[in-house]
Amino acid sequence: MPDHTDELDALLGLIGRRLRATRVAQGLNLEQLACLTGISAPALSLIETAKRDARVTTLARIARALRVPLADLLEDRTSRPGEAGGSNGQGYDLGDYR
C-alpha cells in the first residue's frame, strides 16, 4: 500500500493557506473568525498552519462564516474564468463579541 503522507501534508498546507488568505482578504483576524465559527482562535491557527487536520464539518463551518463555498478552501478555483467566489458584499456583525 503506497504511503500518501506527503500528498496529504501538501493538501493540508494548501487548505490552510487558502483559509488564511480568504480570512485576511476579508479583513478578519483569528479572534473574529473564532467568534463567527465557535472554533477557538488557537484551533483555527493550527488548521491554517497545517498542524491540525480539520474535519470536513469544521471546514464547512469556517467556509460558511467566511461566506465562501467550501470548494474554495478545498480546490484552486482562481484559474476558472467566470466562477465567482468570495464575499457576497454583506458586512459582519461582531457587535456581540466586542
TrEMBL record:
Record domain HTH cro/C1-type: where: 19-73
SUPFAM superfamilies in alphabetical order: lambda repressor-like DNA-binding domains
UniProt keywords, alphabetically: DNA-binding, Plasmid
Coiled-coil regions listed: none
InterPro entries linked: Cro/C1-type_HTH, Lambda_DNA-bd_dom_sf, TransReg_Diox_bact_type
Listed CDD domains: HTH_XRE
A GO CC term assigned to this protein in UniProt: cytosol
Chain positions covered by the region annotation Disordered: 76-98
Domain of life: Bacteria
GO MF term set: DNA binding; DNA-binding transcription factor activity
Record has DNA-binding as a keyword: yes
PANTHER family, per the entry: HTH-TYPE TRANSCRIPTIONAL REGULATOR (PTHR46797), METHYLPHOSPHONATE SYNTHASE (PTHR46797:SF1)
Record protein name field: HTH cro/C1-type domain-containing protein
Organism from which the protein derives: Rhodobacter xanthinilyticus
